[in-house]
Design a protein that fits this description.
- Helix 1 packs across helix 3 and helix 1 crosses helix 4.
- The chain has 9 helices and 12 strands.
- The protein has about 300 residues and is an alpha/beta fold.
- The longest helix is centred in the first third of the chain and has 28 residues.
- The radius of gyration is 30 Å and the shape is elongated.
- It has 3 domains: about 80 residues, Orthogonal Bundle (Arc Repressor Mutant, subunit A), CATH 1.10.10.10; about 100 residues, Periplasmic binding protein-like II (D-Maltodextrin-Binding Protein, domain 2); about 90 residues, 3-Layer(aba) Sandwich (D-Maltodextrin-Binding Protein, domain 2).
- Strand 3, helix 5 and strand 4 form a beta-alpha-beta unit.
Amino acid sequence: MSAVTEQALFLTLVEAGSFRGAADQLKVSTSAVSRQLKQTEQALGVRLLNRTTRSLSLTQAGRVYLDSCRRIEEEKRTTQRMLQNLTAKPVGRLRITATPAFANAQLLPALADFSQHYPDIQFDLTLSDRHEDLVESDLDLAIRIGDLKDSRLKSRRLLASRLVLCAAPGYLRERGYPQSLEELGRHQIIYSSHLPDIEKRHMNRLPTPEVPESHKVLVVNDVLSIYQAAKLGMGVTLLPDYLISKDLANGVLEELFPDQVRPPHEVFVLFQGTDFMPHKLRVFIDFLATRFAQVTKGSI
């Protein structure tokens, strides 16, 4: 009986409903099962099962002990899987959802680098500004911006980014550089229309609420389109710094009022809160966290 723990034996005995049934499943003698049960009861100082010639039934103490046995055995199985994962090669397919802007600017280069290190992991990538339900959509993880509402999920921050008020140099030369926040009301503004379940970039994100309708030169529900419109010189807008950092450095876009207008635009990775995380998922999340810690420091 040394190969079977007392918890596993008790679970088998309760599920089988008889000493004979448990003995058959464990491939031991009936007397060995009976002897182990008695030893457990003596060690605990309580009676766990009521025995009759035809059936077994749990005592109150037995019900408490049964719950404990189930937890112990589940923790044991989880630990075994985790230990196996430490040496196992991560393989399989990961299902991810992310916003199009973040995917194009940051995630796709990260996937390319990751694949160089872990060629046996493949990806299904769904790009959407909507907050997909990870459980219902059978997704492994989501990369989301801003407020996190789903308490069923665990999260890990990837980037403490900001939104940047910016415009193309050509536009600013033609229309003039605003000298104060109030002067933005006289400029052409590129707006993001309402995107369900994503951080708003509307008038409450701009420093002045008084922008005439005629100055809203473009209203669009896609961040990448806003980005292209800004580079083409259509007007002033707010864009995430992870999307436009190279454009700012190269002079393609210019930042306005950097000390006054930089609302937060934090990026998180979300995943289901379970006791056991697949090895492929843990490796990927750790890779993202390390990579974007370097992005935050400006080394990528």
